[in-house]
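Notes from hallway chat w/ T.B., transcribed later so I don't forget. T.B. wanted the structure written out for a chain they're using in a teaching module, and asked if we could keep both sequence and structure tokens in one place. Agreed to drop them here.
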Amino acid sequence: MRTYRDALAYLDQFANYERIRSVQYAPETFSLSRIEQLLERLGNPHRAYKVVHVAGTKGKGSTCLMIESTLRAAGYRTGLYTSPHLHTFCERIQAHGRKIERSEVAALVDELEPHVMAVPGLTWFEIVTALGLLHFARKGVDIAVVEVGLGGRLDATNVVKPLVSVITPLSFDHMAWLGNTLAQIALEKAGIVKPGVPVVSAPQNSEAQQVIERVCSERGSSLVLVGRDWLYAPGQIDLSGQWFARMRPDWNQHFWPPPEFYWTPLLGRHQIVNATTALATLDLLRDSQLPIPLDAVDQGLRAARWSARMQVFSRSPLVVADGAHNGESAQRLAVALREWFPRRKWVLIFGASSDKDFAAMFDALLPLASRTILTRAHGPRAADPERLAELAVSCGAYVTVAANVADALNAALPGLEDCDGIIVTGSLFVAAEAESAWAAQVGGPIPETDD
């Protein structure tokens, strides 16, 4: 039998479009027929349990986590499939709140190999998706929360037949693949909508909302729209989390039903949108005859913790990391930093993937920074820090360059005053490397990695 590293090396032989973005996003390249053939050979494991399917640009992972955490608190055996991973491949596939074991990955790759060889043209993500869906069946999950990898319509996860389809906030990202307008992006994301299957959507730009509404109407799928059918309001905040309320739009006219109050450890007001979207999804699951007690909802939201999302590594000195990777995510991060840490001066450590809109992210983040350190994560898609520096300097920023994230943290610490903080952002990969580097710096537990 293969070792875990041998299994990852085998998977790496296949085209991985998380790393390679030079191909056309079209049925000629991305085809559901391949993974359907593979799953058929495996006995269609994805039909052995119920599914919630989640697409979107921002907040997919947080929304998936809150849904899964609540279902697990309600006593269900759960699966959680997300991407990308921060530190180890095993994070992508979780059953009953536990990452898949390395030995399980190796055994499943051995089992899949003859079937993979029988289906020409399979990609890395298609094989990994099949592996995850098979693992959930083997673990006897009752319901799996499955996050789309890219887009929706042509994504390998779109083979599932969900109880509820969910679309989180949409914005401009992966435009070379999904389109240059929000309408085009929305049409790709709304490709997960199945005939007659209810849909929950987070608040959207009007252009995107119109597309989602049209697709739902054409496919006979009811639509619950957060911001229209459910409202939300922020509450008290501190470094441990935040309170928020959810209510019906006409509650203040009839004072019934009363607002519901919840607490989440996830920081940033954008997480209230994700939480309200998760709550609306749980409502529809109840309508599908899945009992979910109110105390399980409270417990599930409280237990949902997600690395690299406004994650505070240290309060003194203040070190925060966030995986904001496009202009709108960076804007939301900037708003959250101003609210949670008023009057702070920031040392910005920034690195991004080469296909991102650096200018939009700098517009949001550079005004917060007293100085900026540009760096890169390990990996082929990381942007050259020198290229980033040219753009940042043209924006009037005071810039230095560090070869890697650990060096950037070391450069940020000297001279840091009590009123200062360090914010590490630009990509999930940079935030993940910062978590490992900071743990090594302070002698804390270093996250397990595949390196």
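Follow-up for T.B.: The chain has 16 helices and 17 strands. Might be a good example for the class.
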